[in-house]
Amino acid sequence: MTMLTEFLGYLAIAAGFFAATKKDMGGFRMWHLLSNFLFIFYGVVLASVPLVVSGVVFCGIHAVELYRMRFPGGRRPGQV
What we know:
With about 80 residues, the protein is an all-alpha fold. The protein has one domain. It is about 80% helix and about 0% strand. The longest helix has 22 residues, at about 25-45. The chain is elongated, with a radius of gyration of 15 Å.
């Protein structure tokens, strides 16, 4: 494993830890989403399917919840 690969893994961990310090749910989800994107790349480099799958699942969960926070009730501005 190269130093760059290890750095990517540690960066993903750091983003996850930083997410845990956020008091508002939006900030937590954004930072955890970033952390999971990094874990996906890390998993691809390591050829670790479980790491990639868990990252994709968490990204999906956070993306949906951020969408729901932005557009409560599923309505976007201008929709009837």
